[in-house]
C-alpha cells in the first residue's frame, strides 16, 4: 500500500514544476503510478492534500531554521547559514505555487501567512536582538519593525509585477534583497564578518 508521505512528495514535485492549479489528481496518480482511489484513501480532495503538504513543508522549514538559530552560536555564522538555507528554500519555489495557494487554497494560504507573520518574524527578531547583544547589529534599530520588514521584503521578491519572472531570476532578486538587508542592519564589526566569512 502506498503511504501518505509518498503522495505528498510526488504531489510536491509536480506542484513545484507547474503550480498547484494546473495539476490534477489524475496527474498526481499518473506521476506516482497509482490510482486516484489510492490518493483518496489519504486525502478527501485536492485542497486537503495541498493543506497537508503546506503543513509538512512549513514544519520541515521551521525545523531547518531552528537548527540554524541556536542560543549559543555566533549571530554572523547564523546569518551566513540562513543565507544558504534561504537559497535552498527559494531554489525550489515556483512563484505560481504562492499565487495558486493564495487564490485557490485558503486554508493552506492561512497556514503560510501564520508561519510568515508568526514564526519567521519571531526568528528574525530573535536573530537581530542576539546580533545587537553581540555587537554585530546596529543597536538603534527596532528589531520587531525590521523583522516584519524583512519578511515582507522576501515576499516582495516573489511579486512578478515588480520583478517580472521573464526578466529576473528569483534567487538573484532574493540575494540582492538579502544583501541589502544584511548590510543595512550590521555594524562595522558585522560588515567586516560579512565581507570575510571565513
TrEMBL record:
Keyword field contains Coiled coil: no
Molecular function GO terms recorded: DNA binding
Keyword DNA-binding: yes
Region forming the signal peptide: none
Keywords: DNA-binding
Domain HTH tetR-type span(s) in chain numbering: 1-61
InterPro entries associated with the record: Homeodomain-like_sf, HTH-type_Tx_Regulator, HTH_TetR, Tet_transcr_reg_TetR-rel_C_sf
Pfam families: TetR_N
PANTHER family xref list: ACREF/ENVCD OPERON REPRESSOR-RELATED (PTHR43479), ACREF_ENVCD OPERON REPRESSOR-RELATED (PTHR43479:SF11)
Designated name of the protein: TetR/AcrR family transcriptional regulator
Highest classification ranks of the organism: Bacteria, Pseudomonadati, Bacteroidota, Sphingobacteriia, Sphingobacteriales
